[in-house]
Amino acid sequence: MTTNYTSESKKRNGEHILINMTYVAKNIGLDSGVELTRALEYWRRYFEDNRIVSALVISEGYFVQSFQGTRPAINTALEKILDKHSAISPNIVNIYEIESRQWNGFLVKHLTSNAEDEDYALKSFSAGSDYNPYLMTSTQIESFLTAVFGDSNFSKF
After folding, report:
1. Which superkingdom is the protein from (predicted)?
2. Of 53, 73, 106, 157, which sits with the fewest C-beta atoms within 10 Å of its C-beta?
3. Where are the beta strands (DSSP E) in 62-131?
4. What is the CB neighbour count within 10 angstroms for residue 105?
5. Spatial CA neighbour of 89 closest among 62, 69, 52
6. DSSP characters for 131-148?
7. Which residue segment(s) compose the domain that 91 sits in?
């Protein structure tokens, strides 16, 4: 039996509410090569299939990711992340409702030790002399993501 979801039943499940969730994590389970590339491709497809947009920064073994979608989609994605990638030990920075999606697709930026990336990571947003997003406030993390993806030096994975 096929169930038809009316707009009223969708509202009961929260599909009309958009959520932004941001987390930081330490990459302790994935290598930086093929295994990481496969994981990124899996999540790109998963997010695309579930109409979730994302901005992900990878640097010095850390992940900083913001993703946006409907409340049920974000809850399911978080559950999958915790189940599939428990080794990264994500720490949720914030979850809040939004009016519209900020990101466009599945955006990925690998920060390196070049001068431009160090400006992003260390001078403007880090809480110390070393890059460690666990020490950043939620406001610093949001500003960091906006600064990183505010220019054209990123890749749409």
Report:
1. Bacteria
2. 157
3. 62-70, 91-98, 106-110
4. 14
5. 62
6. --GGGS-HHHHHHHHHHH
7. 17-156
